[in-house]
Structures are given as structure tokens and as C-alpha cells.
Amino acid sequence: MQEILVLTTGGTIASRETENGLAPGLSDEVIISYFGEQPAVNLSVERMMNKDSSNMQPEDWLRLAEKLKAERAAYDAFIITHGTDTMAYTAAGLSYLLNDFDRPIVLTGSQVPLEIDGTDAVRNLHDALTFASQTTLAGVYLVFNGLVMAGTRAIKTKTKSYDAFESINYPYIASVQDGVLHQHFTPKVNDKVLVSELALDPNIFVLKAFPGMSVELFDYLADHVHGVIIESFGNGGLPFEGRNVVPGIQKLTAAGIPVIITTQILEEGQDIYLYEVGKRVADAGGIPVGDMNTEAVVAKLMWVLAQTRNRDTVRVMMQTPIAHDLDFV
């Protein structure tokens, strides 16, 4: 008999109508009753929190990680029901905090609440249970609309449609159809494992580049944050004419503050040395992270900074593939 623990956190899947709009309100007993059955599977359920996922914080990732670590030996797999808006951030955060975990951890949720007609929740719960009970893979995964994604590669790309999540720059692991698991891709198991304390440093800032971006922002950041992530244009480019941001990156780097350069473009990652506008950023100290998505970069930088503030070590750790997050820099 497989023992699987379901941890509930709230989200749309558990929401009901209130005078202020949808808000989490379903009991754990109601949620677990919709899972359906798998042969030789015993489900347990425990509420961890009851939040709209817009209210989820890094401290909540730590609570989940601590719970999962404490219960690891007692269960064969874990399912986390979660709101969709920040599910990808939580999946990435758990992927780093528990990158040495030897059980499957499966996150799922829904676009429509469980008790509303036409909900996608029932399918997602069934599919999550199918994957959790049948997979031989360890680590963190997101299951949604019949697709299984690595926890560091999932991004929410739609606000209403059932196919709300995509696996970006990485193959889908598997699919589930009518209760049958179809494995499509087996991740490499040689990603580096970095055992660490369960800790995060959320004192970071994410800046999306835009034409007209103020260079004075960097003066403020230098005095207030431990790390900066810039969503650059295209392959890693930022302006050096007119409003020149390159000196700002140099200032942060000189102060020992790592500046991580990702891209606003979802697919295909970046090649920061391809254009002059990118090479100047790299020469100023910007740290490129290839084809990682922003959700994973945010979680990884918080996790790395909790272990070290040394900029050179931060660079090495950010550019080290962990939990399938990075294929090239």
C-alpha cells in the first residue's frame, strides 16, 4: 500500500463565492473526496495554510519544505494543492530547498473552483494522484491539464484557460490521459545536488527593463537589496545610450551585489555576448543565467543568497544546473 500525503494551501481549487469575490473556503475532507481512487494507495490530508496564492510568501515555501522533510520517511509521495498565480514560484522554491529529496512532490490546482460546474479541478487532482502514485521519479513536479512539468520549468501563461501552464525551454516529463501515465522524457539524474539549510533571503529586487527606465533606480538598489534580477531585452541587452544603465550595474557589482541577467522572452533563453548591448552588460558584471525562467531565477537567488553573499560564489551557484533549471549559459 502506497502512502501519499496531500498538503492543502488554499487557492482557487479550494475557493467559494464570498461577498468580496472568490476566496479559499473548502474543507480538506471535501478536497480529498474528489481525488478518486488508485489501487493500493492510501491518501492522508493536512492543511498547511488557506491562502489565495497571491498571498503566498517565501516563508510559506519554507514551511512546506520543513513539513515535507519531516514527513519524508513516512510517505511514498506528496501532493500539494495550490493556487495557480504563484504555483510556479512555489514549485521552483521547493525544487531548490529540497533538491536532494528522494520522493515525488507534485503541485496542482485549478482555474475554476472545485465545486463550480465545469471545473478543471477534478481532472487535475486525478492526474496528480496518477503521476504521484505511478512515477519512479523523485523531485518537484507540476501537473496541470494532463501535463507533467519539472518544477523549475513551469510558467503560468494564461489567466483563464485550462491549459494555463507551459514547460518553458524543457520537455514535458509525461502526460496523463484517462488515468494512464505516459512517460515522454526522463530527466537526467546527474544534476548537481547541493544540500543546504532550509533558508531563503527574500531581500532581492526584480527589474523589468523598459525604454525610458531611470538610471537612478540603481542608486536606491545599491543601498537596499542583497541581489538584483534584471529582465533584459532579447538576448541580454540593456541600453547604454541615452539612459545608460551599465554604470548602475557596475556600481552594484562593485558593492558586492550580484546582478542576475535573464530575459523577458520566454523561449530559447539568451546569448548575452551576441550583441554589443549584451556584452557591455556582461563586462559590467551582469551574471547571465541562460534559459532559466524568472520564477526559477527568483527562487534560486533567494536560496543562494541565504547560503552566501560572496558574489563569485553566487555566480557559480546560479550558473550550476540544479533540478533541471538550466541547460546553457
From TrEMBL:
SUPFAM superfamilies: Glutaminase/Asparaginase
Reaction(s) catalysed by this chain's protein: L-asparagine + H2O = L-aspartate + NH4(+)
List of catalytic residues: T12, T84
Positions contributing to substrate binding: S53, T84, D85
Enzyme Commission designation: 3.5.1.1
Domain L-asparaginase N-terminal: residue ranges: 4-181
Keywords: Hydrolase
GO biological process, one term: amino acid metabolic process
GO MF terms, alphabetically ordered: asparaginase activity
InterPro entries: AsnA_fam, Asp/glu_Ase-like_sf, Asparaginase/glutaminase-like, Asparaginase/glutaminase_AS1, Asparaginase/glutaminase_AS2, Asparaginase_C, L-asparaginase_C, L-asparaginase_I
Residue ranges occupied by any Asparaginase/glutaminase C-terminal domain in the UniProt entry: 203-318
Top-level taxon in the UniProt lineage: Bacteria
Top EC class of this enzyme: hydrolase
PANTHER family linked to this entry: 60 KDA LYSOPHOSPHOLIPASE, L-ASPARAGINASE
Membership in a protein family: Belongs to the asparaginase 1 family.
NCBIfam families assigned to the protein according to its UniProt record, in alphabetical order: asnASE_I
Full protein name: asparaginase
